[in-house]
Each structure stands twice: as C-alpha cells, then as structure tokens.
Specification:
It is a single chain. The chain has 135 residues and is mainly α. 90% of the residues lie in helices and 0% in strands. 4% of the residues are buried.
C-alpha cells in the first residue's frame, strides 16, 4: 500500500510539472501572439497616419492655391462682371473653404481614437478574463 501512495504522489508530481510546463508554453505562445497583433495594429496606425498626412498636404496645397488665386484674381480681375477686388475675394473665399474642409477631414483621421490599437486591447482584455476564469 505504501508503494501505491508513493507511486501516486510521483505521478501527481509529474502531472503537476507537466501542467506547469504546459502553462509556461501556452503563456509564451499567448505573449508571442499578442506582440504580433500589436505589431500589425501599429502598422495599420502608421498607414492611417500616412494617409492623414497626405490629405493634410493636399489641404495645404489647396490653401496655397487659394492664396495664389487671390493674387491672380486681383491682377487679372473679372472687370467685365464684377469689380476686380470682389471677384478676387469670391475666388479666394471659395478655395479657402474647400481647403479648410479638407484640413478638418485630415485632422479627424489623425485623432488618437483612430490610431488606437483596439484589437490588441480587446484581445488582452479577453485573455485576462480567460486567465481569471481558469484561476
């Protein structure tokens, strides 16, 4: 009987060691997966940042075109239809409004909420809940 209890405790020790080893292996795999997800989301965020910067550059170019149109309109004028100063003002205001609309769209793309790593945060919460349920 004594040999049976020592054999059972040896099997329990092996079983516990196996469980600990499996836990370490799964924790390592989970960490690797979370890092890979974070890298992928970071790449997406950088891509969004690049697109936002491109739109912002386009908005800047349109604002410059508005300023240049004001100058050209002041020089050339639309004397046949309006007073030259009024024609230049109208063209400049319209292009300025278009540029501001594009600038606002670019700013929305660059907001921190659009750059957040939401999938990684969700996966980490889910993993924490899973670990909490198993312990």
């Amino acid at each position: 009987m004594a040999s049976d209890s020592s054999a059972a405790s040896a099997n329990d020790a092996e079983s516990a060691m196996g469980l600990v080893g499996r836990l370490l292996h799964e924790a390592t795999a989970l960490l690797r997966n979370e890092v890979a997800l974070a890298r992928a989301e970071f790449a997406d965020s950088v891509s969004n940042l690049k697109r936002g910067a491109g739109v912002m550059a386009a908005a800047g170019a349109l604002l410059l075109a508005g300023a240049l149109s004001l100058v050209a309109a002041a020089i050339l004028g639309l004397a046949e239809v309006l007073a030259p100063w009024l024609a230049a003002l109208i063209v400049g205001v319209v292009l300025g409004i278009v540029g501001l609309v594009l600038l606002q769209a670019a700013k929305r793309k660059l907001e921190p909420s659009n750059l957040a790593m939401q999938r990684t945060q969700h996966a980490l919460r889910r993993d924490a809940e899973l670990v909490a349920r198993r312990t």
